């Protein structure tokens, strides 16, 4: 029997192909889900499932390489924003225990004469898996297209023009993180898990179906709600940057990835972290302030905020 999703489910085609009533209903439902839970499941998102699994297969080949080979693509001096990050390096904010994962970062490819070419790090590609570059770039573009459409709807929900949030991410430092959670001895250590409780840094995160479940969100009453990995669904959550500009009207919800029960198996996931342009100033929107309400946070650029968090989680 197929699992039923535990969070609200929307269909992006209601916004892209529906009539005005369908579009308005979509805007309301996705906005309310992010307001109440910080999470929503999206169907009809436009990212091809075959392309997703082609990338999983290619990255599985990379993660199976010898440790010394993988470490050739690791750059601690640049905050590991591109390429490989070794197992046991990253930890959640305010948690000293390392997460049980290794991962790969890839971002947008910019031409050498682009104004941001010197500020957004260049991708690195593993020569041992030559087909990976083309397929990963294709997936990146599909994910960004999907994100732009969702951000249009969220902009309207916030009382802004449809182009408000999509314009914010133009030439932004959005990245795909390809995560491998291997089977390892660390499952037995108290307090250690695949990804300890945390909030995302960015505007929104798009998480196409992982190879198995394990994601959980923290309810307002302190209990944990499992979110299932269901074929064809993308899990979307709001990050700290969106919470910041909405004065926490669209909060960033704490979540984690728990260790598997029963026989341990490896897990792969591929979140797309949507970031604004590095120079964009994150400040509270007037439409998100009630009369007499003060902003909960001071203005800060997206780049400054990102670097601050990278230091807190051990990547910079």
Q: What does this molecule look like?
A:
GO terms for molecular function: metal ion binding; oxidoreductase activity. Belongs to the iron/ascorbate-dependent oxidoreductase family. InterPro entries: DIOX_N (IPR026992), IPNS-like_FE2OG_OXY (IPR044861), IPNS-like_sf (IPR027443), Oxoglu/Fe-dep_dioxygenase_dom (IPR005123). Residues 171-276 form the Fe2OG dioxygenase domain. With 316 residues, this protein is α+β, with helices and mostly antiparallel strands. The chain has a single domain (9-312), classed as B-lactam Antibiotic, Isopenicillin N Synthase, Chain (Jelly Rolls), CATH 2.60.120.330. It has eight helices and 15 strands. A hairpin with a 5-residue loop joins strand 8 and strand 9. The radius of gyration is 19 Å and the shape is globular.
Describe, in short, the structure shown.
The protein is α+β, with helices and mostly antiparallel strands and 316 residues long.
- Rounded to the nearest angstrom, the distance between the terminal CA atoms is 45 Å
Shape: globular
CATH architecture: Sandwich
Question: Whole-number average pLDDT?
Answer: 92
Order of helices and strands: EHHEHHEEHHEEEEEEHEEEEEH
Report the β-strand fraction as a percent range. 15-25%
List the uncertain runs: none
CATH class descriptor: Mainly Beta
Main sheet record: 9 strands, mixed
**How many distinct domains?**
1
The amount of helix comes to 25-40%
């Amino acid at each position: 029997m197929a699992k039923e999703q535990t969070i609200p489910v929307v269909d992006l085609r209601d916004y892209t192909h529906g009539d005005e009533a369908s579009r308005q209903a979509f805007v309301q439902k996705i906005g309310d889900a992010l307001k109440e839970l910080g999470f929503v499941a999206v169907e009809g998102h436009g990212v091809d499932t075959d392309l997703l699994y082609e990338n999983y297969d290619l990255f599985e080949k990379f993660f199976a390489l010898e440790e010394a080979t993988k470490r050739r693509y690791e750059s601690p001096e640049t905050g590991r924003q591109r390429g490989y990050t070794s197992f046991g390096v990253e930890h959640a904010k305010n948690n000293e225990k390392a997460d049980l994962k290794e991962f790969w970062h890839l971002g947008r490819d910019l031409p050498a004469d682009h104004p941001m070419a010197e500020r957004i790090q260049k991708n690195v590609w593993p020569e041992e898996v030559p087909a990976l570059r083309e397929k990963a770039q294709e997936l990146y573009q599909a994910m960004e297209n999907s994100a732009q459409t969702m951000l249009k709807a969220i902009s309207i929900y916030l009382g802004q023009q449809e182009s408000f949030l999509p314009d914010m991410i133009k030439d932004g430092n959005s990245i795909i993180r390809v995560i491998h959670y291997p089977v390892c001895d660390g499952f037995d250590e108290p307090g250690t898990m695949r990804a300890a409780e945390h909030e995302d840094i960015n505007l929104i995160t798009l998480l196409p179906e992982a190879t198995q479940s394990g994601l959980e969100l923290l309810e307002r009453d302190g209990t944990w709600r499992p979110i299932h990995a269901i074929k064809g669904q993308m899990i979307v959550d709001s990050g700290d940057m969106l919470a910041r500009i909405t004065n926490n009207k669209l909060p960033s919800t704490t979540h984690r990835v728990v260790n598997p029960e029963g026989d341990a198996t490896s897990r792969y996931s591929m979140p797309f972290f949507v970031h604004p342009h590095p120079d964009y100033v994150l400040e509270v929107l007037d439409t998100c302030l009630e009369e007499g309400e003060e902003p909960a946070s001071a203005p800060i650029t997206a780049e400054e905020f990102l670097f601050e968090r990278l230091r807190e989680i051990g990547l910079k």
